[in-house]
Write a structure and sequence with these properties.
The chain has ten helices and twelve strands. The protein is α/β, with parallel strands linked by helices. Helix 8 packs parallel to helix 9. The protein starts with a strand and ends with a helix. The model has no long low-confidence stretch (mean pLDDT 94).
């Protein structure tokens, strides 16, 4: 019989909790509201909220005039708010405060880098096309270089002007160690670099704890939505110290062949994974003979 433990630090981050709470409060007295993009990158939680009346759209044009639209924790570029105002949409802004601070800092850095004839470079360490990154690009009119990893940065080096100052920011849910490596590579090439510490502290603190958690168990079930950027980072982190790490969306993806008698099973998840889903996986395993 396997033993099961849930990582106490896993589950929704504060920004996601705030967005979902606001959605539930609104839907308790209204039949529907619209979310611009997935409110959370977890299919099971999205299904639960859809049953309560949350409708996910990709563009504001899909929201009927006068409708209510929720801005999720990832944040949005200024153009989104301008379009919402033109179409007379009610906006419930659930942008994470950490993301809003990052947007403010990137605007200020850009203005400083382009003051008095300078032509400095803003660099964003993040996933190309990610909602948060798109929101950051919108703060500077798209005038920033986005790199996902060291290989992408190496390819972009020829287009960088190292005679000008640079400022680098990270998507809030990226790996601190990968961010440090990116910054070090730029410094080694002689960059006049200002590094902004923009990884969410709640996310960063999970990394060291998850490393310990993964080492302490024979097998790790990492519960995450397939589109979660944070889930990819954290599950890769677990797998780096425990090769028996399996990413699942729910109980239906569990394979009994993964387990041996007396296995110590650790269950953890992304910042977009609800606690109820972690508990559902744990209860499923404890019912095994």
């Amino acid at each position: 019989m396997v033993s099961v433990e849930i990582d106490r630090g896993s589950g929704f981050c504060g920004g996601v909790i705030r967005a979902i709470t606001r959605a539930e409060e609104y839907l308790s007295s209204h039949s529907r509201m619209y979310s611009l993009g997935d409110i959370v990158h977890n299919e099971a939680e999205l299904s639960r909220l859809e049953q309560r009346g949350l409708i996910t759209v990709k563009r504001l044009s899909e929201v009927p005039e006068g409708g209510t639209v929720l801005i999720r924790a990832h944040g949005e570029p200024p153009s989104t708010y301008q379009e919402a105002a033109r179409r007379k949409l009610e906006v419930i802004d659930c942008s994470c405060p950490v993301v809003l601070q990052l947007q403010k800092h990137i605007r200020e850095a850009y203005a400083s880098l382009h003051a008095e004839g300078m032509h400095g470079q803003v660099i964003i360490f993040g996933r190309v096309g990610h909602a948060e990154v798109l929101g950051l690009l919108g703060q500077v009119g798209g005038d920033a270089l986005v790199v996902e990893n060291e290989a992408m940065l190496l390819q972009a080096l020829p287009q960088l002007d190292f005679s000008q100052p640079m400022a680098i920011f990270s998507q809030t849910t990226k790996s601190p160690s990968e961010y440090a490596a990116i910054c070090q590579l730029l410094r080694e090439r002689g960059a006049q670099l200002v590094v902004h510490d923009t990884i969410c502290a709640q996310v960063a603190n999970r990394h060291q704890r998850l490393l310990s958690f993964a080492r302490e168990h024979d097998i790790i079930l990492f519960v995450s939505g397939r589109s979660s950027s944070n889930g990819k980072v954290l599950s890769d982190l677990c797998r780096s110290v425990n090769p028996r790490t399996y990413v699942i969306g729910g109980t239906e993806e569990i394979n009994p062949a993964w387990f041996s008698d007396q296995d110590r099973v650790g269950i953890c998840g992304a910042t977009s994974t609800p606690k109820w889903l972690l508990e559902e996986v744990a209860n499923y395993l404890t019912r095994w003979p």
